[in-house]
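Internal ticket #5521
Category: modeling
Description: The requester needs a full-assembly model to guide mutagenesis choices. All entity lines are attached below as received. Residue total reported by intake: 1197.
Assigned to: D.W.
Attached entities:
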Amino acid sequence: MDKMPKWADVVLIPLISLILATAISALVILGIGEDPVAAVKIMVSGALGSTLGWGYTLYYATNFMFTGLAVAVAFHARLFNIGGEGQAMLGGLGVAVACLYIPWPHWSLALIGAGTLAALFGAAWAAIPAWLQARRGSHIVITTIMFNFIAASVLNYLVVDIMRPKGARDTATARFPDSVHLPTLHELLAPIGVPFSKAGPANVSLLVAVAACLLIWLLIWRSRLGYEIRAYGHSETGALYAGISPVRITMITMLISGGLAGMMAINNVMGEAERLVLNATEEAGFIGIAVALMGRSHPLGVFLAAILFGFLYQGGAELALMTQIPSELIVVIQALVILFTGALDNMVRMPIEKLFVTLGRMRA
Amino acid sequence: MMDFIAIPVLDSAIRLSTPLLLACLAGLFSERAGVYDIGLEGKMLMAAFFSAAVAAVTGSAWLGLLAGIAASMVLAAIHGVAAITFRGNQLISGVAINFLAAGLSLLIAQHWFQQGGRTPSLIGGGRFAPIDLPLAQTLAPVPVIGPIYSDLLSGHSALAYLAFLAVPASWWVLYRTRFGLRLRAVGENPAAVDTAGVSVVGLRFAAVMICGILCGVAGAYLATALQAGFVKDMTAGRGYIALAALIFAKWRPWQAMWACLLFGYLQAVALWYQKIDIWGLVIPVQAIDALPYVLTVVILAGFVGKAIPPRAGGEPYVKER
Amino acid sequence: MTGISPPAIELRGISKAFGPVQANKDISIQVRPGTIHGIIGENGAGKSTLMSILYGFYKADKGDIFINGRKTEIHDSQAAIAAGIGMVFQHFKLVENFTVLENVVLGAEDGRLLRPSLAKARRILADLAREYELNVDPDARIDQIGVGMQQRVEILKALYRRADILILDEPTGVLTPAEADHLFRILDNLRAEGKTIILITHKLREIMETTDTVSVMRRGEMTATVKTSETSPDELAELMVGRKVLLQIDKAPAHPGRTVLEVRGLHVRDHQGVERVKGIDLTVRAGEILGIAGVAGNGQSELLEVLGGMRSGAGTVLLNGTALALDGRGADGQARRAAGIAHVPEDRQREGLIMEFHAWENVAFGYHHDPAYQRGLLMDNAALIRDTEAKMKKFDVRPPAPALAARNFSGGNQQKIVVAREIERNPDLLLVGQPTRGVDIGAIEFIHKQIVALRDQGAAILLVSVELDEILSLSDRIAVMFDGRIMGERLPDQTDEQELGLLMAGVSGEAA
């Protein structure tokens, strides 16, 4: 029989990991002479206390939903895609190309076009490591790391040396035309009479991200392809037996993963900056790892974890403004979440499993 | 063309190779024992900060070095606990450690020094001074050998010489000692080591801690020898380049040195030239930046010789019947 | 003599539980020094657990160990080695890219430096080779020598550590009969030198031929310890199983029909490029079971894998007269299923099932493209669960719970899920590999009956098994594979274990 009920696995263990990460972070805050309770208050009010705060929280969450899903999908095929960062950078390039060089009549068409190109660019960037893994057995973790650096160099070259307007001082492309401006939550909610801050960068991409969560759920848990992906992830020899091609699954999964990471660009590049800035991804590709781990690779979990990290990022920025605590605190929290939900999973899990086994015996 | 092999460029190459080499050897010990380590970057960064911080406060580069090693070893111990004791995912643990170092180093730097995440610039004894090799002055005027000896090989810090001495030392430990035999065995087949009555956990921890020490020296070199103090993200991906070099070297010490020299040289070229013009063909500097990564992918792809990692690499050891 | 000296090993009241499973229950035995003591029992009877406790891999929950009359605590392998115990595991514990010498020395070095240890080991190895017929090239790399040699290295490792007590766990599983005979000669030599040997096996023949005493284990308990000379295979079999075993299955004579499978000149290479199947020809007709006998590792697995679409090969394979693709597109498991081949794979846990999947997900495994399991673009889980319930009922899977993960079923019930899935497809050809490995007796009978029933419905069945008993009782025709070739074909009622054993050892049929 199973050692513990499913709810303990999907809810209790991530929760305990989160509490551990929070507790240690509180100690860190104490260590640098600040008050953790006050810090939490500032974070909550800064990130959730106003529609402006929500506007930022949801903006970050949108990024993390895309990158979190990207990592989660790959995890189901037992592929660790650390390359979300590079794929998101390429996605940004796709968005910039679509928005700068194609005249779009309406933002909705631009969103479809730019989103498609972003996904294609991201997927293409994932395709090479995927092919190398599937055909040549090159470890995908290492190749995707390498591709992050190569992506940074490619973007650096293209943005700085090629796409930057003559004489411009910023390391960025020209602004996108107004016709591709994506409606913000303020613009979306105003017609139905819901007031929302004008300044918050959350935009229609959020809806795309939520739709992506739903689609990925259907894909993984309800579709034949998802069945094959999960089967391959659990057992490669099993997949061979069942006639599921490892090469095909590795390729398709990584293309979906890279596409999702690339899609992030509709939020940060198209929705927020409205031009392609160097380092536009701001490590969201890596935060996706924490989000996927925290969310147990389940789209609903990813959705919730993305909002949690959106809160942390916005709250952390607020902290840096209001106190002496640098925003890097959030990086520490993120590291601890990855550590506890990912690498130290057994440390949290084993005592709980023991507890449930004991409880089960007492009941029997 | 001759510019690319000019003494100053080669001298930079050696300086830039040194941290790569230390980190690469660090990774070599860990991965040869079957523990993947993509947290080289984080350990170096943490060591860079603590060595610079302690050196700034005490004025002693050597005390800084010790502090850097200690900080790096703490992170190595976390990796060991996660990857060995609790049999967690080694790659995820490495990712976590990189973030932990990136966040904590800046957090503490800001708290201690209030200089926007830097340490004060190191002066005097806070830095490792260049060491002149014997007869460097005397030999300087001799053609060819003179510049190579006194300008290229002489005048590096103690840590740089230590790094290059670590190459034969690592080779000797791995291939000529009992510890080395067991370490290589545990990376290939831990069950063989276990049934032979040797502790897998003990060996792997030893390897991970050696990795911590070497990363500590690498970080200290960055902050107290190559540069004069800690700045944000000063490792700049060197941990990953070291990883790339390790694969390039197929997990062998001497080859690791050549790989690091090559990658260090590429960094030096990127540093000295904005555009590289080879017979009219202009190569953007970004291409040189990306070259180590591209080369590693090519090696990994097995188009130029196959890089076969230690067989038990990445797998936590679970006793089986 | 033997009355005076204390037993080399004495176990008193050893118990060990893994969670709710009681692997060893209050086990006591005594092994006299200088004897070969057999421990026999079915898979899962607790033999390996007991030996792992003796070698310090597990700690017993209860009980004491006495070595040469002295109570000894064995908390790890180091302690076992110090107590003079050496173990040859079923799966060798060798470092593949090390030399023989390095493997022997590993963990038993004399000092911090390697060179003197290696030199000393080289001398001692030469002595041991002379003494016990244990010749191995000390400088050969493990991955370049055969399994028989590798096993000798394991024995040498134990002897180098001055083991007086040697435990061998299923040592002949991977050996040819000739290699096995050599091994038993070595064991005789060791006994003559006063070493004590514990031989764990499930093969009655080995017990009868080589041991002095034998202990029988069943379901974690020691059911008897007897002198080998005073017992018989029938008695041991009954002690092992707990009741009279049906060695012969009730089955009507076969009525072979048209040719279903025809294999001509099939060659298969493994992933390292080594040729494992070296040009074989065979046919299987409707309504007959062709059994492939052979020692594990002689190409049978690869044969099944090629036919099942898990591996590519070269040659001609005709199914109902139509050629099957053996490479590239159209040569995968999906294409095979579409052509009418079902496959009960050799390793149900790694191949036949996804252990983390629900039983109902596993019932679709390999047939997940079946339109009956689809609704629009998505999978029809409700239909799958209904189908699973029906199959579980028909094949008596316990518990009949479709939502339970595969890993939570016993070995026999896991195999029933696989067999149900494959047989219920009414295939033209059923490939069956080791159908009863790790399966309890009750389920073995059930599974054998299902296979025979499918035959009687007119399916062609290709059975691969390393269990000669199984081959002899199930097959209508027997082909013996050795070194990638078919050594000969026999009819079960016109041959016996001895003749098949010779063929399995590569002694050609015509010569034998």
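Resolution: model delivered.
Comment from assignee: The longest helix of chain A spans residues 107-136.
Ticket closed.
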